[in-house]
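chain below, 265 aa
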Amino acid sequence: MEKKIAQISDIHFGEKTFSHELKNNLMAQLEEENPDLIIVAGDLTTEGYLHEYEDAAEFVEQLRTITNTYTIPGNHDARNVGLIHFENLIGHRKFVHLDKAGGFAVLGLDSAEPDINDGQIGMDQLDWLRTELEKIPNDVCKIVTFHHHLLPIPQTGRERNILLDSGDLMRTFVECGVDFVLNGHKHVPNAWMIEKMVTLNSGTATTRKLRGNTFSSHNEIIIRDDDIQVNLINTLTGDNRPMAHYSVKLEEEEYIICSYKHMVP
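prediction:
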């Protein structure tokens, strides 16, 4: 069986480099990809203002016409008391999605802190996360998503806003057997492998707020019985290139990533 997840982030309605052309391209690409699930990993808006959220809500509704869509807030969404608008117009700030037939589960968290770029999960969410992860069978791929990156990302300069409680979160991931972590935030796509766990970052899908030679993009994650393929999709050109490949297996009824290959984005 094959399942597809589209990982997009950093839409940034209200940003001066936001591009309607890129947004329209993204929608057309998602319709062609026909994913089983869309994850929006934060920063729908730029300043958290109501008019930005109204545009974002229309965008999310468009995504939901394609397939099941989940959205979590980013640091920009939490500016100017913006999380009120997030809850009113977008939905819950954390979620659980279990696809037993597809062999995966996705849990979403809110890492945003009001009016600062730093992120934090907090003890209440950590407790909630552990409780929910313990309900997930060990023979499925466990995926967790939140906006801020768990590990430093290349080509992003001085490291300033990694999660404040990343150590506590890492311990929870290792103890609960998390396989994939999906993040956004720095506008640079990247994949790391640590403790048999993949951290997968997506770039900005709809802006030209780019670092170095990066380009506007989103990630396509293809989950199969014995492997997972990650493709990087250029939102401007539609170019699709391999970003990472993982072989997976069940060992004593536990889902394990047993080998990997990363390609430079």
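Helices lie at 20-33, 50-66, 83-90, 123-135, 166-176. The chain has one domain: 3-262.
thats it, cya
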